[in-house]
Amino acid sequence: MRKFLFNGAVLGALGGAIGVIQATRKGPRDWRLLLMWIGWGLTLAVAIGTVIKESDERALESR
What are the protein's UniProt keywords (predicted)? Predict the structure, then answer.
């Protein structure tokens, strides 16, 4: 769990959620808001996938 919390990509994606949440509260509710949430979700998925891949590569190197 620690590898996810301290990874820069995951922290950046979570920081990006702040902007999406503010846009949801203050902005208009239209198709662009849906695209913002989809974009944020994809960014978070890529960040988590990167952490998993790096972890797997490190495990293979240590063998």
Answer: Membrane, Transmembrane, Transmembrane helix
